[in-house]
Specification:
By secondary structure, this protein is mainly β. The protein is built from 2 helices and 14 strands. It has helices spanning 2-19, 116-119; strands spanning 28-30, 46-48, 54-56, 61-63, 67-70, 73-83, 95-106, 112-114, 120-123, 129-133, 144-146, 151-161, 168-172, 180-184. The longest helix has 18 residues, at 2-19.
Length: 187
């Protein structure tokens, strides 16, 4: 019984350390010369109300082709397409694969790990979220270690209903939830 109480301070210390690890990261569109461009809205800016309260500003969305600087990354959605599958793998009846071609660059001075399952999700106009899946007609992937100054390009596949619309790709730069880049897609 006494041993269990000794673990509580250790658990509290771990929670405190982990909560201080991340800061909020605001995505910014970068200009063609790779310097951050000023944006009118940011995911972490606040607006003042007349009664002195503050509320978070609406999250900024980007479009296909925008180079987005967020934390140690520059993230770009290059294109998007649909697929009904190949000979061996197919989406479920009534669904399609929505495939997004994206590039992630590491602008930090240390290696980073990219995970398609943890850092990317697709959202539709009804608020449904879709995680990446495996499709047989994608090129490359966005998984693995990325060295400083290097870039990784690959395709992410999402299984969605055929009639889904208002699609947005959400890139979580930090698995602790401290910043997101939202890209409005062409469907």
């Amino acid at each position: 019984m006494l041993r269990r109480y000794k673990l509580i301070p250790l658990f509290v210390l771990i929670v405190i350390l982990l909560s201080g690890c991340g800061g909020t990261v605001s995505p910014e569109k970068t200009s063609d010369d790779s310097t951050p461009a000023k944006q009118s809205e940011s995911a972490t800016q606040t607006e003042s109300k007349p009664d002195g309260e503050q509320k978070a500003a609406k999250a900024q969305t980007f479009k296909i082709g925008d180079a987005i600087s967020i934390g140690d990354y520059v993230f770009t959605v290059n294109s998007a397409r649909t697929s009904k599958g190949g000979d061996f793998l197919k989406p479920d009846e009534g669904n399609i694969w929505y495939i997004v071609d994206a590039t992630v660059e590491n602008e930090s001075d240390k290696p980073v790990t990219i995970s398609s399952m943890m850092m990317f999700k697709l959202s539709d106009s009804e608020g449904y979220n879709y995680n990446s899946t495996i499709a047989d007609d994608t090129k490359g992937n966005l998984d693995g270690e990325l060295a400083p100054g290097r870039k990784m390009r690959g395709e992410l596949a999402f299984e969605i209903p055929e009639n889904a619309g208002g699609l947005e790709l959400i890139f979580d730069a930090d698995v602790w939830g401290s910043g997101q880049a939202i890209v409005k897609l062409d469907r």
